[in-house]
Amino acid sequence: MRLRSLLASASPMPPGIGDRCIRHQTRHGECDACIQHCPVAAITLIGNTPRLDADRCIYCSHCVVVCPTDAIDSLSPIERRYKDNCLFSQGDPRVASREELLLWHDQYGIRQIAIPDMASRWLLPVARLNLLLKQIGEPSWQVIYPPETADPPPSRWWAKKTGSVGRIVGGQRALRDAFPAIAWFKVTLDLATCSLCGACGRICPEQAIQFTDKTLQINTQRCTGCRACLSVCFNQSIALQPWAAATSPETHSLHTCRCRQCRQSFRHRSPEEALCPLCRRHAHGMRHAT
Fold first, then answer.
1. CATH code that applies to domain 179-253
2. Residue range 2-73 in CATH 3.30.2010.10
3. Whole-model pTM?
4. Which of 1, 29, 100, 111 could be bridged to 85 by S-S, CB 3.0 to 4.6 A?
5. Per-residue pLDDT tens digits for 79-130
């Protein structure tokens, strides 16, 4: 409680969730990254609107690191101590998440972490980090401990080893820019049910889905996982799942057709298609009767 009070007093404004949040921009937004990663359940939903309880928040910045649209206000990643390529866990009780450590890996070239003992709570996120680094072809981190006969003693050994203080630039966009060849989310479009209306492309803040008159391009490397596309797809033709693999844009050829029934233009994968999606759904010309 004392730590929370000190942290709150150091911030000019209490942390909150701003207008960039997808749930503030779309009526049926589904993004819950901050909720899933908050270790103290300080972020909850009131209806479909996320609310950050500043009194409950411990300022760990886990939400900042995973937010796909940089929507967390008045909260920054934690300053941590490091020297050369070694990060020091001693000095702050708030354990870093795997995602934060991955950004330390890229932005500061960290390849080692010094932790106080084998029972440290840092071991789990470091283990999860090393599994992810192996998956994307990056060098893993080494864990180092203070020697049992350290001189000076372990409590002062950390201070002697510490060189600098820094903080990462957080957010899912920062992670995407750090590893541009890696897709962190897999976007799958069911072309059999998709009406090619283009709503997903218009709402995507990262332009991971793009439509032209002649092509549909899905660039999963640009996706930050905000799930805005899912909230506007009335056919539920889009699936999104966490991913971590090198990929390349997926392009589909499209044709502009004219519906023989309502005479409206529409996109389709086949130039021979005669009915637009709406007329295909309204049998026996019932679209004109409504």
1. 3.30.70.20
2. no
3. 0.86
4. 111
5. 999 999 999 987 678 999 999 999 999 999 999 999 877 668 999 999 999 9
